[in-house]
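Lecture 7 notes: from sequence to structure.

We start with a single chain of 436 residues. Read the sequence below before looking at the structure.
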Amino acid sequence: MSFTPFEIEFTRDGLVFDEAQVTQLLDAAHGLTDLLVLSHGWNNDKAEASGLYDTLCANLAKVVAANVVPDLAGREFGVLRIFWPSKRFADADLIPGGGAASANIENDEALLRVLEELKHDPARLGGSDTSPARSSSIDAAQRLAPRLETDEAARREFVLHLRAVLDPAAAHPDDGTEEFFTRAPEQIFNSFSDAVPAPAATGDGGATSVNDAGGAAGVGDLLAGFKAAARRIANFTTYCTMKQRAGLVGSIGLARVLRQLRDRQPGLRLHLVGHSFGGRLVTAAANALPANTPAVTMTLLQAAFSHNGLASKFDGKNDGAFRNVIAQARISGPIAITHTKNDRAVGIAYPLASRLSRDQAAALGDKDDPYGGMGRNGAQHMGGDTVEGELQRVGSGYSLASGKVFNLNADAFIKDHGDVTGPEVAYALLSVVRTV
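Now the structure, written as tokens:
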């Protein structure tokens, strides 16, 4: 058994950068039984993304060599490494501590860093290009920063400038982003101005304590005030940018490649694997497949999208953005989702959506939060479609079945948002693969 590597690079608009890469993959498809489709989503350049893929593939090879996953003999695997212009959001150095005397200065510096990063809108992964219109909007927001604490008009203009770099058509009820475009700017600032506590380590809905050094014992963003709100708004804008881009690359770019592959090799098994915003990317690609597509699995590793994304009537009336993946069996095989309270990035981003929806009390990011994150909580509001379990040690048994979503609590093995390449993850992925 071997893993034959392929690469395809997509631009920010979801277009293939080099069609020769697609041709190479299509020409090789006849010699493959399975294709792993890997998408990063938390990387700023190709070297970072390649490192993620290299480590995960090395552990996949080790698990195969250990002969602990049955039914893989005689199968020939290709590994498609996707590259697209993703970007980190809510990074650790952009979240100042809540107790230090210098925290307000750190917050001001972090706000300017986030805004500076927002200017960049590269067409390709690792680029630094942007559009004049985008730069103009962000420059205007930066000039307003010194006035935000005392000037309501400045706060209003700040929000309007950040809205200008986003596409409102990409907003959806499942993650609260609609509110970012419909609420008054002053309401948005008020919603984001309070400290963001962390979910309790036990997952019981309470907030974590603040440790003796003044920082959060878990996931927390403990500064208050309009400057802190501005930083959160800027980070939320980064989240919305990546959400839109991942959806485009998945639904326009990757989905087309998958259809071409199936046309060329109808029996090819497809295994979609996405990390962070790459989870949204591969889910968007799956959502663009026909109903009842056979021999497709999906594994989401600390996915950065709403835990309502696959849900049915999560609020009593709306389905998640990707409900048809389940309802129409566009993924016919099992779907496995790792989630953990240790995921700082997803834990910071998603309580903000609940604040936008005016639900401050529930804005803790856990499974009871109306707008929690997939990588924090797994898929929620799924009725009988989900099975709760844990990420297992290599060699332990998984009972996986087609047509179900398996939430795998990874507290024991995944220590942060990017810790998704270990042997336990590789073993879970191969356990999903063997089912089709």
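Residues 96-101, 201-219 have pLDDT under 50 and may be disordered. Keep this in mind for problem set 3.
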